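Quick start: read one record
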Amino acid sequence: MTAPVPVLQLVVSTQPGGGPQHVLDLAVALRARGWRPIVAGPRDGVLFERFVAAGIETVELRTDRIAPATLLRLTRLVRAHGVRLVHSHDKGAGLYGRLAARRLGVPAVHTFHGIHFERYGPAGRRAYLAMERTLAAWTRVIVNVSRAQEAEGLALGLFTRAQSRVVLNGIDAARLTTAALDRWDARKALALDTEAPVVGCAARFDPVKGLDVVLRAAAALGGAAPLVALIGRGPEEARLRALAAALGIADRVHFAGEIPEAARLFRAFDVYTAPSRKEGLPLAVLEAMALAVPVLASDIPAHRELLGAASGGLVAGTPEGFAAALRALLADAPARAQLGAENRTRARSEFDLREMVRAIEAVYREALGL
């Protein structure tokens, strides 16, 4: 490439989370490798400023709501910046990005960071699936962040096998390790007891994340209940707080709020819990693994792909399953150390950011015919 190729990264949110963080890591790496990433999305979270601070061209665009004016603005943006490829991430961005790309004759790439439609009613599900199938016909390449997600999308008819490319999420383990606080400082930052057993996670407070399972599991441990630290925000927060109170463990649950780069605090946890009911390929779990934090995760396809099907960290995604696993692991420091070491080795050997970026570059060259 003689001049940097302008590639639009279209996001549906700039709140802390796996998808937006993935785009930030990708944009920074692409720019270093000679591309010209431009990010567009709503200014609804702290990552918007992180894009700007990283020197990425960033444009405010309300992709999180349906409005004809958004499509008009996006079309003008693509033309004004000479964008040669539109790469959209998740639902709203995927709709606007592919409509604009089709209108202007620009190749479109779309990444599914999880396929979530189960909470829609029957009519809503049919409408969503029909929309995705239509949009797929206008998409040069569909990127799936896990093999499990690809299998689901193919079964649903959301894209063809010829369109799909599996590009596993990746992390910069060295940078992550350098930024991470040690156990004492991380607990101090979270205002947690420095001696008590602590389990925690960082997630959007949404029903699909299954955070109620962790609260019920902790309550089931009675007097041996650990402190539970939940990092994040979302529509489920009021319900989770009410549940903690109803279970009698409100004084043992710490709602830490939304924290950018939350992984730097993961060493505060004796165990990282991931009780999700469904995932694409969760970045926060991968970050915990890379930091050698032992992970207990619900036994779902995405977690099996991350941890390995034979991992002792996979448990039944029920309060009883998590309670039994937590009771055993919190009482066994050597087992925690061994599981953490296994996590670390797997994360660093199989989920490297550089490999992810190279794979995305190959997708772009394919879509652009370079």
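The first strand starts at residue 6 and ends at 10.
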